[in-house]
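Working notes for the structural subgroup meeting. M.R. asked for a predicted model of this chain before we commit to crystallization trials. I am recording the input and output together here so anyone reviewing the notebook later can reproduce the run.

Input as submitted:
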Amino acid sequence: MKALLLAAGFGTRLRPLTDDIPKCLVPINGRPLLGIWLAQLTAAGCGPFLVNTHYRAEQVGAFIGRSPYRPQVTVVHEPTLLGTAATLLRNLDFFGGEDGLLIHADNYCPADFAQFMAAHHGRPAGCLMTMMTFRTDDPSACGIVALDASGVVVDFAEKPASPKGNLANGAVYILSAKLLDDLRGSAPDVSDFSKQVLPRLVGKIHAYETFAPLIDIGTPQAYARANEPAR
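Returned structure, recorded in token form:
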């Protein structure tokens, strides 16, 4: 299964660490985060990969160029940062009419991707995508979902002031070929996947809960947690 890895962000909340290195290359227990993603996805049988770049793009390109995954990776540079949905819309042809992964590659997530893909293949009828979810200790900082008895998302609130639960969107998705085709008709000003695309899909999203760590490394505290030795 092909995968689009969103890796273009500035990582402003991680400064000064990201003053000289892009967020997608910060080390997690000595390994660049993007390298961890490429390794675990390859092990699960995924690929080829598309990686978008913007901040410190030359470093990302150099890393991929010397990595063992280079033949499987295409890099697309964004001179102006597009946004998560706009990047997806600009690169729909990459998926070749098949289901595909959309991943925020600034998360640390050693989940079982073979299980995730199996869950997607067995999703309830009518669901156009599968969202990886996890239990969060800070629901007001996440997109919180509510599910029906069959595991379909029936409510979604992005960073709610008064969360109704703690099951959170992990920003790791499998999008069906039908959804990718439907998105071709999106308005040209659609830029944010979580805020502008997901709300329209409530009732058509299958949720898969991972019990592996899923950490947005965007703050020093979260980054430190991702670097804790595995228990």
